């Protein structure tokens, strides 16, 4: 099987890489010295990312009959490729590269046709850490059980003891709050950890029906990319 990028796709990818690298300021002094030292690592990342893009194009051609020439004329796919390339070159975590490859396949195959959803997902893939991804996987795996939990302590206890999670309590709490702020999950009326929960919060929860923890539509789309990675 031919694994080399077709000419038009190759030119597009090289332009994306060149534009991303040119954004790194190299003026003089120590920053110029740093820039010269970055050449070799950047070349390695460029080659490795090209391999991931080639895999995405092969999948789009073999499974979805999307030819590279047609993809290069698809504005949504070109935007996705440019944004994914900038994100890929800015991270050393290969797990995120695989997610970005699946993102390109999803955009190219129209599995994610809504451009607003595409924009939201690439922002998440750019910003979220491996810890975020670990916690999100845990939330999906225990979703049925977690919806019945009323305290963050109980959720963390299951993560730490049942799933052998290594994040400390405060980091876990921050990641949940961050996922909630990004509309990936809704924490509902889950009671905060002991040292953060207020008396007023406890009284409110005792006197009203508790809204359960939920994974949003955006969260489910992100989880689909994570499942495709497995």
Describe what you observe in this structure:
With 230 residues, the protein is mainly α. It has 2 domains: 7-112, no CATH class; 130-229, Arc Repressor Mutant, subunit A (Orthogonal Bundle), CATH 1.10.10. It is 70% helix and 2% strand. The chain has helices at residues 7-22, 29-64, 68-71, 75-89, 94-108, 115-127, 130-141, 143-146, 152-162, 169-181, 199-207, 217-229; strands at 185-186, 214-215. A two-stranded antiparallel sheet has the order 1-2. The protein is elongated, with a radius of gyration of 21 Å. The model is unreliable at 30-35 (pLDDT under 50).
Domain count: 2
Rg over CA atoms? 21 Å
Shape: elongated
What is the number of helices? Answer: 12
- State the secondary-structure class: mainly alpha
Number of strands: 2
Strand order of the largest sheet: 1-2
| Average of per-residue pLDDT values | 82
| H/E element sequence | HHHHHHHHHHEHEH
Fraction of residues in H or I helices: over 70%
Largest sheet: 2 strands, antiparallel
Note the beta-strand portion: under 5%
Low-confidence stretches: 30-35
Terminal Cα span: 23 Å
Oligomeric state of the chains in view: single chain
Question: In a few lines, what is going on in this structure?
Answer:
This protein is mainly alpha-helical and 230 residues long. 70% of the residues lie in helices and 2% in strands. Strands 1-2 form a two-stranded antiparallel sheet.
